[in-house]
Amino acid sequence: RRTNLPMCVFRYPNDGPVAESAGMFVLRMEKFHQEHPSSNVTLITHSMGGLVARAALEMDSVFTSGNLVQSTVDQRTGVDQLIQICPPNHGSALAEYGPLLEGAEQLYRIINRGGRRDRVLFRSIVDGFNEASTDLEPTSPFLRKLNACGRNKNVEYTVLLGDAGPLRPAMSLLVSGIWDTIATSVEEPAELDRRIRQVVECKELQHGKGDGVVSVISAQLPGVTDQVKLPMHHLVWNELDTEAGKRLLNEVCSRLGVSL
Asked: Integer distance in angstroms from the first to the last C-alpha of the chain?
């Protein structure tokens, strides 16, 4: 809207299998192309939307409502560019720990009472990664199949990834210390203790190693040369008037050939 370029939004049931959402997207883009046959299309995606777009662009076929849908969106619909923002291209370790993240949120509130933005980030993790969590696990069959595909040669790729995860090294130590006290006091089972520590230590949450949901390593996509690491957390796309948001917006606009 800020660029005055024509745009539309594709909405999909993000609690369903990613491949099915990709199938819905293929069908929608075919209809769009029929209505606008001369249009060149840039896809700008956030988070799991990047996987939906990649599945439509890179897989030979996807399913929707039980029906086989041929892919190759670009050749039939004019798509020639994909800009991914904070994409979990190789999944997220947090997908496995959805039920535990409510506890992590409460611990984080204790040590960062004034961090309203970060509390929203944690709510996003809890809410978002209980949806389609199976496909988002790093070793999921869907991700193995998707990442075995090559990049679409007719599409120009950009990956904009963030490293402003909420847990700085000192904070991680503090959270670990708090959990040590809690675990000792209530004698939590060893398995729960192991999983809590894995959440605290995972790269997705670490400042400099992830954006709070997706790790830097997971976001990277082999074969793509235009990959830029930005000082942003996973929800900066919704905060475009902040310093980090303006930086993100400028990176996107420069690849659209416009300026604000």
From this structure: 11
Q: Which two tokens stand for residue 97?
A: 């720990």
Give me the pLDDT at residue 75, please: 63
Closest by CA position to 69, among listed 99, 26, 102: 26
Give the three-class secondary structure for 137.
coil
Q: Which amino acid is at 224?
A: V
Asked if residues 209 and 196 have their Cβ atoms less than 8 Å apart, the reply is no
Name the token pair of 50.
């990047």
Secondary structure class of 230 (helix, strand, coil): strand
Helix, strand, coil percentages, rounded to 5, for the chain = 50, 15, 35
pLDDT averages per 10-residue partition of the chain, 260 residues: 89 83 89 90 95 92 59 72 97 69 47 52 47 82 94 95 80 53 57 60 85 94 97 91 96 93
Q: Which two tokens stand for residue 51?
A: 């996987």
Distance CA 1, CA 16 (A): 29
Q: What is the pLDDT of residue 259?
A: 86
